[in-house]
Each structure stands twice: as C-alpha cells, then as structure tokens.
Amino acid sequence: MAKKQQKKNKKSFWHQVRFKYKLSFFNEDALEEVWSFRLSRLSAFTSLLLFAFLIIVFTALFIIKTPIRNYLPGYLDVEVRKEIVHNALRADSLERMIAVQFLYLENVSDILAGTLPLDSIRTIDSLVQVNPGFEIPRGEDEEEFIRNFEEEEKYNLTILNSNPTPPDGIIFYKPVNGVISAPFEMGKGHYGIDLVAAPNESVLATLEGTVVFTGFDANYGNVVQLQHRNGFLSIYKHNELLLKRPGDHVVAGEAIALVGNTGELSTGPHLHFELWYRGSPVNPQEYIAF
Description:
The chain is an alpha+beta fold. It is built from 5 helices and 12 strands. The strands form 2 sheets. Strands 3, 4, 5, 6, 7, 8, 9, 10, 11 and 12 form a 10-stranded antiparallel beta sheet that branches. Strand 6 and strand 7 (about 220-225) form a beta hairpin. The longest helix has about 35 residues, at about 80-115. The chain is rod-shaped. Mean pLDDT is about 80; it is low at about 120-130 and about 155-165.
C-alpha cells in the first residue's frame, strides 16, 4: 500500500512539474488574444538556468578580453609582469651606465685640473672587471700568416741583433687626431696610449704593413693588428668598425678602422694605440708627435 502511495506521489510530482501553463496576452479594447505561449515549471527552470549560464559566460569573457581584468584584486596580466621586469632591467642598466659616465667625467676633470695623475683606462673605469690573464685569441688566418712570416724570417740574420732600439729614419703617421687621455705606462700594464677622438673618425695605419689580425675582444672591442717589415707591430683597439681583413696590405696613412667605444674597458669614444718592436712594447710618443 505504501509503495503504491509513493509511486502515486512521484507520478503526481512529475505531472505537476511537466504540466504546462498557458500565458496569454489580450487586446483590452477588442478582447482579442494577441500572443500566448505555454510554459511548464521544468521548462521555466531550464530557461532560467540557461540564462544564468549565459550571463556568467558573458561576464567572464568581458573581464578576460577587456582591461578591466587588471583592476581585479590579486590579478596582474602576464604582459604587465614582463613589462615591469623589462623596465627594471633597463633602469638598472641605465643606472650603471650613468655611474660609469660620471666616474669617467670626474677622472677626466681631475686629470685636466692636474689634481689626479694620469692613469690607464683600467684604473679609470674601475667598475669593469678586468682579467689580466686574458689573451686575444688568434684566428686561423692570423696563425697561417704568422707561420709563413716565421718561415720567411727563419734565416734572417738581422734577428740575431739583440739591440731592441728601433732604427732611425722611419716616418710614422699619427693614427688619429685626438687628445692623449692616458699615456704609455709599462709598469702598470698599459702598453699603449689612449687618444680621445670624435666618434667614427678614421683610424690610419701608422706604417706600411699587412693586417695580421682583426676581431672582437670582450675587453678591447674591435681590434686590428698590423705587422710591418721593419720589425714593428701596431695595434688599434676599441674601434667601432673594422675596414680591413687579415692578409690585406695597407700603406702608411690608409684608413683601417673607425673610432668607437667598444669593449668593456672603454668609457668613451677613443683609440687605444700600441706600438711593439720585436716583441717588446715601446712608447709611441717617442716616435710620433701627437
């Protein structure tokens, strides 16, 4: 008896839920039915649930696709995070660059005022990590040229002369028009002179010779080396652009590079010029009027 009653109540419930009600709209003046539709409780609940779902989906899409999402608590767009990190890195790099420039200008000002002794670029740019044991790697063209040169000079009796003094009567070209900011100081490991010059000014070969090396060094930037017949080797560092390749023959006064500011040990547009004679560095100011 109880099961029949339970079954009857269940059937009655589904009948009530699925029972359709008619909603009609009449014209008040003519009492004519204008529009009507049938709706059950189940269909009404389903329609309301579908409407709520659409509202939720529309709201979510509106928040995701518009900038309003950035105003939600705890939410920050990934692109905004990347932009913040990028700006932080740029600010840090700019701060370091300003510190280096300020230190450079302060040292130059003290040198010009005579309150600070002239020093090498290694000391001026104290913010740069210097590796004194670093050597410029040789390329294949340089190695081949050196082997050929050594083979040609194997039986040259002039190398038996132990006198390191360069011969007289050689006319050197000034490598660049500029002001000396750091002189030759062999005791401090500064084997050349630094010439402050205008950016992109031509760097000239000091003597006739052959290019034995061109390349980039982390500390000295773009470097070019010239081997000369009379035992001299000239080196030009911190160039912006190299105009020659290993093996090229150049004449004295020919443009071989452009003045630049490349390499970690550079604090401004200048040329670091070295002059070597038979494996030993010599002071360029003793042979060239700068």
